[in-house]
Design a protein that fits this description.
With about 525 residues, the chain is of the alpha/beta class. Helices cover about 30% and strands about 25% of the residues. Bound molecules: nicotinamide-adenine-dinucleotide and (2R)-2-hydroxypentanedioic acid. (2R)-2-hydroxypentanedioic acid binds next to loops. Nicotinamide-adenine-dinucleotide (NAD) binds next to α4 and α6. It catalyses: (2R)-3-phosphoglycerate + NAD(+) = 3-phosphooxypyruvate + NADH + H(+); (R)-2-hydroxyglutarate + NAD(+) = 2-oxoglutarate + NADH + H(+).
Length: about 525
């Protein structure tokens, strides 16, 4: 009998597959209420109220799967789960429409002062002139993050006669054209938008993405919405610029700390807010509950899952053999994604040597999983990799060859973006592990893991030393360093690894050095 803890309010109607199974005992309690039963729990289902920490995971020795009835997995310690071999699944599209509709409802309510007018009327007032609103029609809507929700909002905005401007570094120009939206850099979008709405995951890159510095470049009287994750828009900066009259108002569904008890933004008349209701519809909750219930039951019955975000959905025997190449190519995908922060419309993979003993499509899907990991909240795995790539206008090609360049196996990935292309080659060597042996036509040899810095520069005396000096001046210890060049005095490469990720300040200073062509901070999580 599987013990399944439903720790948050998840729609019972959606849990039918679990309730009907004779193998399942459902426990509908919070983790606090169930503290004496945690040791026997096989699966836990949560929404956003429960934080699944490493400590909580450790208190459940039998735990096999964590199911998130929603999209965002920032309340789950995924690395801790992976370390324990615990599958983490979510419901990536169950609440897309609901959240897009909620965002639009908040936008209309914000522009027409509906909550404030209702409160005034309830107080026995009739102050019609106090609530003169603004039409959505003809306004510039800036969407930051053009994934599932951002795309649905763009569709609705166009019907309302709005001009849709989008910023998403991973959006291809083809897809933007097909969506009929104008793709801009964030800095440009902020200067043109009348209304700005954010729909990205909360990641180290998106935390405080919208802040005082760039908000000051917005039109005076701009409106902001956050129905994604608290923290993407810096809350203190938003408060200050509303008080100063630069920002006309804001609609907020999510907060950096929830519940936002006594939050200063809630004191402002020009701020409307809801308690994280984007997904709170009958339909969305039925969708996500049904999806996670089916995932959990499928997994516990030994069948592949469709929305795993951390473990492959293939048999353990096959995975044990293919795992070295599976991890290598996943890291290659992540390196490509982080070395080409732009829309990429084509990826071609060439397999040679002993990798051809396996179903290489599993490897290509692992490549996509690594590629999308730093770009999407949606889990990309063997089941949905090609679908998501197609949705995002990414063409995938697979080739094979006999040329292994002296290695027993050799994988080459070539990515073509709007502005340039990048090639990377790797191999797996017994006892040495994964090795990247070519990067952007440079011969090199490094292990793809941890905190890396990829630098391309001109081959001139002192460049390496100047990079080393900045790092040393900031107390950054270089763990490993690889250098290479194509010819004397031409283009050259540095690949460094560190114990910790480099700060934005260090990156900024390195970029200002003479003879640096470009550089990227690359963070690769272990398998
Ligand atoms: N308020 C709610 O109840 C509610 C409901 C559902 C989802 N959400 C939140 O909304 C977010 C978006 O959901 P989704 O289903 O559209 O996810 P998604 O993964 O489909 O889309 C996210 C988009 O953000 C883009 N992105 C990633 N990093 C970026 C960056 N630095 N700058 C600009 N764009 C970036 C990605 O390219 C992608 O297109 C989720 O992460 C979740 O946290 C909130
Ligand atoms: O469960 C909820 O209501 C919120 C879920 C939402 O934030 C999500 O990320 O899917």
């Amino acid at each position: 009998m599987y013990q399944i803890l439903v720790a948050d309010a998840i729609k019972p109607e959606g849990l039918g597959p679990l309730l009907e199974s004779p193998k399942v005992h459902l426990i509908e309690k919070t983790v606090v209420e169930a503290k004496h039963q945690l040791h026997e729990i096989d699966a836990i289902l949560v929404r956003s109220a429960t934080t699944v920490t490493e400590e909580l995971i450790s208190s459940m020795p039998n735990l096999k799967i964590i199911a998130r009835a929603g999209v965002g997995i920032d309340n789950i310690d995924v690395p801790a789960a992976t370390k324990r071999g615990i599958v983490v699944v979510n419901a990536p599209d169950g609440n897309t429409i609901s959240t897009a509709e909620h965002t639009f409802a908040m936008m209309a309510a914000l522009m027409r002062h509906i909550p404030q007018a209702r409160a005034s009327l309830k107080n026995g007032e009739w102050k019609r002139s106090s609530f003169i609103g603004t039409e959505l029609y003809g306004k510039n809507l800036g969407i930051v993050g053009m994934g599932r929700i951002g795309s649905e909002i763009a569709k609705r905005a166009k019907v309302f006669g709005m001009d849709v401007l989008v910023y998403d570094p991973f959006l291809t120009s083809d897809r933007a054209k097909k969506m009929g939206v104008t793709s801009l850099e964030l800095a440009k979008l902020l200067t043109l938008a009348d209304i700005i709405t954010v729909h990205t995951p909360l990641t180290p890159e998106t935390r405080n993405l919208i802040n005082k510095k760039n908000l000051l470049t917005c039109k005076k009287g701009v409106y902001l919405l956050n129905c994604a994750r608290g923290g993407i828009i810096n809350e203190e900066d938003l408060y200050e610029l509303i008080i100063k009259g630069h920002i006309a108002g804001a609609a907020i569904d999510v907060f950096a700390e929830e519940p936002p008890l006594g939050h200063q933004l809630l004191e402002l008349d020009s701020v409307i807010a809801t308690p994280h209701l984007g997904a709170s519809t009958k339909e969305a909750q039925l969708n996500v509950a049904t999806q996670v219930a089916q995932e959990v039951l499928s997994f516990l019955n030994g069948n592949p899952v469709t929305s795993s975000i951390n473990l492959p959905a293939i048999s353990k025997e096959v995975f044990a053999k293919v795992q070295p190449f599976y991890e290598l190519i996943k890291q290659m995908g992540s390196i490509v994604s982080q070395s080409m922060p732009e829309g990429i419309h084509e990826i071609t993979v060439n397999y040679a040597g002993e990798v051809l003993d396996f179903d290489t499509s599993i490897l290509t899907k692992s490549l996509l999983s690594g590629f999308f990991k730093s770009r999407l909240d949606v889990p990309v795995n063997e089941v949905n990799a090609f679908l998501i790539a197609k949705e995002r206008g990414l063409t995938i090609g697979e080739k094979t060859s006999h040329d292994t360049f002296g290695y027993s196996n050799f994988i080459t990935v070539t990515a073509k973006g709007d502005n340039r292309q990048l090639g990377i080659s790797g191999t797996y060597v017994d006892h040495y592990g994964s090795r990247i042996v070519r990067l952007n036509d440079f011969t090199i040899d490094f292990h793809p893991e941890g905190n890396l810095l990829y630098v391309q520069h001109m081959d001139r005396p002192g460049v390496i030393g100047r990079v080393g000096k900045i790092l040393g001046d900031h107390g950054e210890n270089i763990a490993t360093m690889q250098v290479g060049r194509k010819q004397a005095g031409g283009e050259a490469i540095m690949l460094l690894s560190f114990d910790n990720p480099l700060s934005d300040d260090i990156l900024r200073k390195l970029k200002q050095l003479d003879d640096i062509t470009f550089l990227y901070r690359i963070t690769l999580h272990g398998s």
